[in-house]
Amino acid sequence: MRLPATYHVRATASDIAARAQGIAVEQSVEMPLDAIDEPRVLTEIVGAVEDIADLGDGRFAVRIGLALSTFGQDAGQLLNMLFGNTSLQEDVVLADIDLTEALIALNVRPQHRIGELRQRMAARHRALTASALKPQGLAPERLGALAERLALGGLDFIKDDHGLADQDYSRFADRIPQCAAGIARAVRHTGHQTQYVPSLTGNLDHLRAQAALARDTGLNCIMVAPMISGFPAVQALVREFHEMVVFAHPSMGGLRIAPDLLIGKLFPLIGADAVIFPSYGGRFGYSQQTCRRLAENARGFGALPVPAGGMTLARAGEILDFYGSDTMLLIGGNLLQARERIPEEAEIFTRAVAAHVYA
Amino acid sequence: MRLPATYHVRATASDIAARAQGIAVEQSVEMPLDAIDEPRVLTEIVGAVEDIADLGDGRFAVRIGLALSTFGQDAGQLLNMLFGNTSLQEDVVLADIDLTEALIALNVRPQHRIGELRQRMAARHRALTASALKPQGLAPERLGALAERLALGGLDFIKDDHGLADQDYSRFADRIPQCAAGIARAVRHTGHQTQYVPSLTGNLDHLRAQAALARDTGLNCIMVAPMISGFPAVQALVREFHEMVVFAHPSMGGLRIAPDLLIGKLFPLIGADAVIFPSYGGRFGYSQQTCRRLAENARGFGALPVPAGGMTLARAGEILDFYGSDTMLLIGGNLLQARERIPEEAEIFTRAVAAHVYA
Description:
Radius of gyration of chain A: 22 Å
Helix content of chain A: 40-55%
Distance between the termini of chain A: 44 Å
Strand order of the largest sheet of chain A: 2-3-1-4
Oligomer: homodimer
Structural class of chain A: alpha/beta
Order of helices and strands of chain A: EHHEEHEHHEHEHEHEHHEHEHEHEHH
Strand content of chain A: 15-25%
Number of helices of chain A: 15
C-alpha cells in the first residue's frame, strides 16, 4: 500500500523526470537502485513516481507513492519518510499528502472533544473565542490575575503564550494553579465555562508530568508545539491523555512543508483538536489561499482552525466572514493593549463574535 | 544575561529597524510593548536589538540579545526562543548564535568520547571512515550480512540508514543483534574495532529502550535525528546514556536556520559527538563555505564532522583535503554499488584514507 505525496519542485522540463525519481529514491531506499539485489525492495519499498504535472511557473507537481510499510507506527518516522532528507534540498516543497484510511487509523485518536466543549459553553453554532497570557517574565500570581481579567470578558479559551515554559521566574507547577484559580474566580462571576489551556514543554517525561498536573488541577485542555516537542512525543501524549483537548502551536513550523499540510493535516493526524496558525493579515505572511486550505483541512479531521498571530478586535468581523463559524478566533496582544480595560474589551470581543451575522 | 543571536533579514534600509525590533519582540514577549506594565519585563525579558549591519544584497544582519532567563533548561525551549515563531516568517534566516559559557554549561554533557574511539581504532591522526546499511526493506539477517561485508573492509563505523526504524519487515529488536553479530564476525577476522551505529527512533520511551538494547548488545554508538525526535528527547537521552557516542542525523533539518549553526553548533550543544551533514558536491546543495563553517563549528565542540550525502570513493582525496583529518568520511551508496565486491571496495576506501597525504 502506498501513500501519495505531492512535492512541488523547481526544475526545468528536461530535468524534472530525473529530479522526481531522485526524490522517490531519497525518501525510500536512499541509494543507487543498481546496488539493490532484492527484487521485493525494488517493487515494494522504493518510492514510485506516479505523476508529474507542470505548474507553469518553473515548478512541477510531482506525486510519489511512498510505501506505507516504511512508515511503521511512529509519527516521527512518518515525517522522516515523507520529507526527512528532502527537507534539506532547497528546490523542493512538500505540498500535500493524500492521507489513506490506513494511515489515519494508525495515528489519529478515536474522538476529538471540541463538540463537547462547544456544548458546555453553549456555543453550538457561533465561532469560539480565545486569548493568550503574556508577556513571559510575569510571576505566576500576575499571570493568574491577568487570566482572571481576560476570563471576566467571557472568553471561551485562554491559552498560555507559547513562550511560557518552566522558567525560573514562572515555574510550570506554580503557574498552572495560579492561572486556573484566576479563571475559576472569573467563571464564578460570569457563569461561562472559560477553559484554561496551559502550554506544555520539555521531553516526554516533562510533558506527561505537566499534563497530569493540568488534569489534576481540573483542566480539560493542553497546548503543545509538535515541531519542538517532536511528533513522537506528541503522539504518545495525546494517546495517554485522550480525555484532554489538545491545541497545537506552530512554533518552529517554518520548513518547506506547505502550512496547510503541516498544520492543517499533520497536526490533527497526530491528535490536535485545535490548530493555531498565523492568519493572513497579521504579523506573518501566509496567503488567504493557504489559510483557507489550512482551515478546511483541519475541519476535515474534526479539528478547529485557530487563526492568530496579530489578529485585532477591529478585524474580527472580516476574519469571521473569511473563516466561517467553525473557527476559534484568537486575539492576544490587541486585547492586552486595553490594559485596565481588559475585561471590558474581552467582553466586546465575545459579544461581537456571538452577534456576528455572516456575510 | 543575554544570548546574542544573529538573523539575516530581507528588508529595505527604511524598514529594517522596525523589522529588527519586530523579531526582538516576537522572540521574547510576543506582544505590543505598550501593553506591558511591568518595568522588569521591558528591561530584562524583551529582546534587545544590539546591531544592524547591511549585508549589501538586500539583506541585513540583525543581532538581537535574547534573555537567557527565557530559555530555562530545556533544549526545546532554546529552539522556541531562538526561532520558534520567526521560523514561520519567510524573510528571516537564523544565521548564528554566540554561545555563552552559561548556555553551554547548561546543555552540553561533560565529555565526548570520539578521542577514546580514535585510540581504540589506532586512528590517532587519520580521518575516520564510515558507511551505511541500506536499503531499508531488507530483513535483519540480510542487513547483518551486509554489515559483516562492509566491516571486512576495515571501516571504522557502520551506521544504519536513517530510514531504518522499527518497521514490520525489520524490527529494531531483531535488527540490532543481527547487525552487531555481523560486524563482530568481521572484527574477529580483521582485528579492527569497527563500531556499529544503530539509528534510534520514536518517542523518549522508545529511544531509551532502544539505547538500552544497543548498550546491552555491547555497542558503544547510537544515532538520533534531533529534528524528528525533538531536541528535548535527545537532550534527555544523551544525559542518560552519556557513555555512548552519539551521532546526529540532519533529517528534517531544512528550516531557515543556517546549517552551520543547526548542525554545527546546536546538535553538538545538545550532545552530538559526530554530526552527519550533506556535503557540497553530493546530492544536496550546501556550499563549500557552509560546509567548512559547519565542520569548524562542530570541532569547536569536540564533535566530528561527518560529510555524507552522495560522497564517492573517487572523490575521497579531494574531500579529505577540503575537510582535513579531523573528519569522518561517510560513503554509503557508492560502496554498496560494488555489490559482491563490497569488502574489497571498503578496504580500498579505508586504505586510501589511511594513506592520504594532505594537500
